[in-house]
Structures are given as structure tokens and as C-alpha cells.
Amino acid sequence: MSALAPGLDRARDTFPKLVRYDAERFPRKVAIREKDFGIWQSSTWADYLEQSRLIALGLASLGFARGDRTAIVGDNRPQLYWAMLATQAVGGIPVPLYQDSIEKEMQYVVDHAEARFAVVEDQEQVDKLLHVREQCRHLEYIIYDDPRGMRNYSEPCLLSLAELQERGRKFAQDNPSYIEDEVAKGSADDIGIICYTSGTTGAPKGTMLSHRNLILTARNAAARENLGSDEEVLAYLPMAWVGDHIFSYAQSIVTGFTVNCPESAATVLHDLKEIGPTYFFAPPRIWESILTTVMIRLEDATWVKRKLVHFFLDVAQTLERQRLNRQPLSLLRRLLYPLGWLLVYGPLVDNLGLRRLRRAYTAGEAIGPEIFVFFRSLGINLKQVYGMTESSALVSIQKDGEVRLDSVGTPLPGVEVRISETGEVMYRSPGVFHGYYKNPEATRQTLEDGWVHSGDAGFIDHEGQLKIIDRARDVSRLADGTMFAPKFVENKLKFSPYIREAVCIGEGRPYVAALINIDFAAVGNWAERRGIAYTSYVDLAQKPEVYDLIHQEVGRVNASLGEDDLLRGAQLRKFLILHKELDPDDEEITRTRKVRRGYIALKYAALIEALYSDRDHVEVEAKVTYEDGRTSTVRADVRIRAADAVVAGAA
Fold it and tell me: Domains in the chain, start-ordered, CATH in brackets?
């Protein structure tokens, strides 16, 4: 166990106090930017402090009391980060929600958290909250930032952010020292945020994290990774996710670096190029998406260019695999790499906006080894991180020079990790949460004498590197005793630019089978180049040519598994392409795109049983839910295809 981090200075032991300190030391330094109407708008640390102060005063004018909760809903916007800080300044607790939550999900969190106030981005979020307000007994005020479309709304609970800040100015005239007095009352062990878990196994749980949890975790990680005030990061992941809270809020405030908010979710990759971040975090699905974009563009290139790019990518990836596996580096490939950088890698990294990147991370779930190797082979310092909401996002990070393909690094300073007798990863650290809000039973099950039961199966190797196998409950065996780690196989499938999501089944079964989602954009592009007409996702997914394409990708995965002595028996024997995309609105995956395996096993039981029969197709219908709560039904005749297995020694 590393030495525990020293205690916090009483003058800087909460985020409002830290922002005041940042405004004193970096008054003119840009703290946060937002792209609006195509133009980057900058706010300094002095602006950050003043804007949050006015919001805090406005909340106080409405009767905000210490301990009250504020729901925060919307895309990453400076105003929403200021609202979080403002809530903390007056002794409250921000509760960020996923902006794409359907009404039912939003109602559950707002009601469960007993939020009296909500600060939201725009009309879309206002509408959802107004529809469920009757079920949210404590909700009194809904404050919105973007006034577009709000002209004819007359509900007395509604207030624009500009109006709230104006109220704050008036309140300050009669209470000049109010905010300073309230900030001074705050302490490190006050709850700083309630982050709701994604709910893979049931209703989301409200994880209570204190200022101490978040500040020490952010500070320890920044020290370990040499983060400074000159970093530039892109804030594009949901504010409800604890990772964004650490990277875009806590670490920014602790170090003073600059956060950039893209114009919209659709412009993230374009805005990434304009900013050129030095520090970038993305879960595996984002790296998969970037890779898919690269591969689609490559398919549109000339034959000569495709061959050239594939040749040099193979050179780089072979070198990187040798480096990660500590094997001697091929002399010929080492000589070819500089030429590859000139012709392929450098232009590609430039085009992606990653030229200035000093460090990049991935976490949330295991990343496919092929995807990890691909980006590292381009010279991107991509490293794996391990953590969860209950640890304030971080437990371990791979150190520079100690990156391994199959590990998640070594524990951060102050973090202790051990493996239980059942193989479960357990940890304790300054970031360990205070408990689940209004759920003492779940808290007792997860938190034991300061140790957190992670629910992950793993081990620590002889170098002290933590290795995660899979979720402990998901690792199982086939009927013949072969070990089966579904996420490992699924990640191999998702390396394909044509496969967006996959769910593998096999526990207690004679063989492994898979439900596959195609990537509609990538496969659509592929079909158009070949003159294959289609009308919708359902139509495209069931085309024989598309099944042939996915059959090849499954064969690639089986060839890879055939080289693994332990998992050779877990090769895919059958698969089908689902007639619809797995969707959080339909409760099939979480808002962070984690598969709800139990729910899928029930919902698609007929399809799963068909995969273990002699049938070659099955008729199915499924309900689709839209964000406004409307539903419709999708019907299809889903084909079942056998896969080509690789025999031992033939891989």
C-alpha cells in the first residue's frame, strides 16, 4: 500500500474554496470554453467564480437550504458546471442526470434524490421534468439555461438562469457576505455529489462522494500522471458519469487546467481537431467509434492507398505488440516505422486532432486488445484505467513505460488492493464512497470495514499489475467445463468496424453463440459502395450479403481465440444479427452502454433458444421506446448462421 496522501488544507478542502483559490492565482487564465454557434467562447477562473457565485445567490433567494439537492441535466455546458459549484457553495448536493434519460428514468432519480431544484440545459429537459413533476414530490423549481422555445411557458416553477442570476445580484445587496459565510461553513467531509450508478443489475443507486473523496483522488492521480495547469481536455461525456466529474470538474479545479465543451454530441470529433487536447479520456465505445470512422474513410480510398495504409498499420501494430509483450523489436519494422509516420501515422493522428496528446485513457469496461494496440501503434500514449463510481472513478492507472495489454496498471497513491478468496477484486482508498443514498442494505453488501467489493474478478501479477478478467458474476463455464468470459469475446467482435455491439451467451451451454448489432453507418456505407439497396436498419441487418460480411468477422475472432489455449473452446459456433439496435431507452443497455445481461436473457429468450436448436431462422417482434415515452413494434424474420470454428493448431 502506498503512503496515504496528506490531509487537506482547511482553506482549500472543498471545491468552492478551491475555485476561489484558482481565481486568485489564475484570474485571467481560461478555465472553461464552450463552442456556441460555431465560435469558441472562453471564461476565466475569475469568471468561473463570479458566475457560480451569482447562481448560488439566486438559489439562496429561492430559499435553498444546506443539504438540499439540485438535479443537473444537459450536455456539457459551463453553466451546468457553475450550477454544480453554486450548489456546493451554499451547502447543497448536485445530482447530475443523463441528458438522454427517458421520463421514467429521470423521474426515478429526481424523486429518489428528493431534489428541490433542477438546473437544466434547454426545452427538451424542461418538458421531461414538467411531465413527471407530479411524481417528484420535492421538486419546486426548474431553472433552464437556453431560452429557445420557452417563450410561451407560463408554469410558476420555471425560471431562466439569467433571471436566477439577476435575483442573486439583488439578494447580494441585502446579504453582502452570504456566500463567503456559507462557503466557510463547508468542510471536506460534506457530501459533494451524488452520482447514480448505471443500474446494470437493477435500479440505479445514489453513490455519495464527499469533497475529500474527490479532491484527494483527483490530486493523487494528477501527481501520479504529472498533470499541470497547462492541460487542455474535452468535456463531452455525460455529466452524470463519475468519470466526467473527475476529469472535467475535480481535476480541472485541483490543477487549474482548461476544460472545453463541444458544440454538440454530433460535433465532438470535429471540435476535438480544433482543440487538440493534451489530455483525453474516452471509454472503449468512443475509441471503437473513432476506429470505425478511420476504417470507413479507408474503404473509400483508392486501391493503392488502401494497400499502403494497411501495410504500414501492420508494421506499427506488430512493433507495438512486441513492445507490450517485451519481445525483441523487429529491425526491419523499426526502420520502416519513420517512413510510416511520414506517410500514414502522422497525417492520421493530425486528422484525428490527437497530435498534441500527451496522455490518453480508457476505462468503464475492458477495451478490445486489437483496438488498444491500434491506437498505441500510432504513437498515442493510450493507457488503461480501472475504477468505479464507488472509488471516485479511479483505483489504478498504467504507468508510462509499464503499459501492458492485459492489465489496468498499479494502484494510485493511497489505494490498497487485495483479491478475496473467491477471486473478487477489493480495494480501499481516500476515494471510497460514504454509502448509497437511502440504501443501507446495498451499502452493507458493498462496503465492508472500509473495503469495497468491486464485483470484478481479477488478480495481481508478479509485477504488482492488476488484471481484470471480467465481472465476477459473468465469468462462467460452458457445459464441458471450458472457461467462458463473455466480455473478452465481445470485445474481439467489436474490434470490427461493422459490429457496434455484441452479446455472447454460453454459461452452461454446449457452445458459445452471439447476438450481434451491426454498425448502421459502417455497414450502410459498405452496402452503398456495393450497390446493395436497403430501406432501414431492420432491412439491412437481414441482407444475406451482410450476414456473409459478419460471418467473416466472426471467423476472424474464432481464429484469434484458436490461438489461446485457455479460450480455444469458447469459439463462436452460431450467431444472429439482431433486428434492432440495443438501446438504453429499451433498458437493454445502460446509459454508459453496459449490457444488461439478465434483462436481455429474458427479453430475447426465444432468440437465444433458437441459437441452440436446429432452426435457421426465427420470427420475432420487439417493442421500441422513444425518448418521449411513445412506443412502437418492430417485426422481423431473423436468420441464424453457423460460424466456422478453428481447430487446435490451425489458427
Answer: 17-186+231-259 (3.40.50.12780), 284-429+454-471 (no CATH), 476-642 (3.30.300.30)
